[in-house]
């Protein structure tokens, strides 16, 4: 097993994560990666970061195009600049700890158990399944919902200051957008939580229902986090449009597969 030590009482850990996810949509396993792995992960992030695709994009929390037909005051009208940048999976070296962890069968089992799923699969997407999220000083990752129902992430480098993960637990559901609450959150009038993440901490998060952001990074050090995306169905590939936005390019696999997994009718 990679990273998951046989000595770890996985059943107890999974039970705790499931409780956290049920109540908050989020759970953190502190020190998931021990000191030696932390150094390797940090080095992998630092080596990969120059490959990040920078394009300051104007986005709303749903990552949707402007829609004048929505009523005035709808949170979709409110836009900000997305200042973070992603390194695509294919820019990480083969055999990296991140790549091995992402596809490790024991880790897949652990993730599936934590989210109460029969199985999870690494995405078939050559770019977006495993990414490094790079937030350089002065930039942040603004409030948004994820397209994926759940993600797993691992902080590989901590900023000197700022760069805090903040979220509004389960502010929307599969059946209800709750736009009044979302608007209140964007105006700082809705309860949120802040996570004090340290390098090596594993975060399991239901990001489709919990509005979240990374506050602007200050100081000299960039914030790096590895984001692991999984799907319940094998073969999931992102859309051409979204892939181009995130990485500035697409692959033949994206052109070949414009269909994608949808489990609800929420805005993107
Ligand atoms: O980097 C993080 O901790 C959060 C990233 C995130 O929310 C995302 O990539 O959708
Ligand atoms: Fe997110």
UniProtKB/TrEMBL annotation:
Residues 125-234 form the Fe2OG dioxygenase domain. It holds the Pfam family HalD. One of its GO terms (molecular function) is metal ion binding. Keywords: Iron, Metal-binding, Oxidoreductase. InterPro entries: BesD/HalB-like (IPR056470), Oxoglu/Fe-dep_dioxygenase_dom (IPR005123). The keyword Iron applies. Belongs to the iron/ascorbate-dependent oxidoreductase family. This is ArpA protein. It comes from Pseudonocardia broussonetiae.
């Amino acid at each position: 097993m990679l990273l998951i030590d046989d000595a770890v009482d996985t059943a107890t850990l999974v039970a705790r994560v499931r409780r956290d996810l049920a109540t908050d949509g989020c759970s953190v396993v502190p020190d998931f990666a021990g000191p030696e792995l932390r150094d390797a992960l940090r080095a992998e992030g630092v080596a990969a970061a120059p490959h990040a695709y920078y394009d300051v994009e104007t986005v709303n929390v749903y990552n949707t195009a402007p829609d004048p037909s929505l009523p005035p005051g709808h949170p979709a009208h409110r836009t900000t600049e997305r200042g973070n940048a992603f390194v695509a999976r294919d820019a990480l070296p083969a055999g990296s700890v991140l790549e091995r962890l992402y596809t490790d069968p024991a880790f897949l089992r652990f993730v599936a158990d934590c989210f109460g799923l029969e199985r999870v699969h690494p995405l078939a997407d050559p770019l977006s399944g495993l990414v490094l999220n790079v937030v350089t000083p002065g930039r942040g990752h603004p409030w948004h919902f994820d397209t994926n129902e759940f993600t797993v992430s691992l902080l590989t480098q901590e900023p000197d200051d700022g760069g805090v993960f903040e979220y509004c637990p389960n502010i929307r559901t599969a059946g209800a957008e709750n736009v009044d609450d979302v608007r209140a959150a964007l105006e700082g009038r809705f309860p949120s939580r802040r996570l004090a993440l340290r390098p090596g901490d594993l975060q399991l998060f239901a990001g489709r229902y919990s509005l979240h952001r990374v506050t602007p990074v200050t100081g000299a050090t960039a914030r790096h986090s590895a984001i692991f995306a999984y799907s319940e169905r094998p073969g999931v590939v992102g859309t051409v449009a979204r892939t181009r936005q995130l990485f500035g390019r697409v692959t033949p696999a994206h052109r070949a597969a414009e269909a994608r997994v949808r489990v609800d009718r929420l805005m993107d």
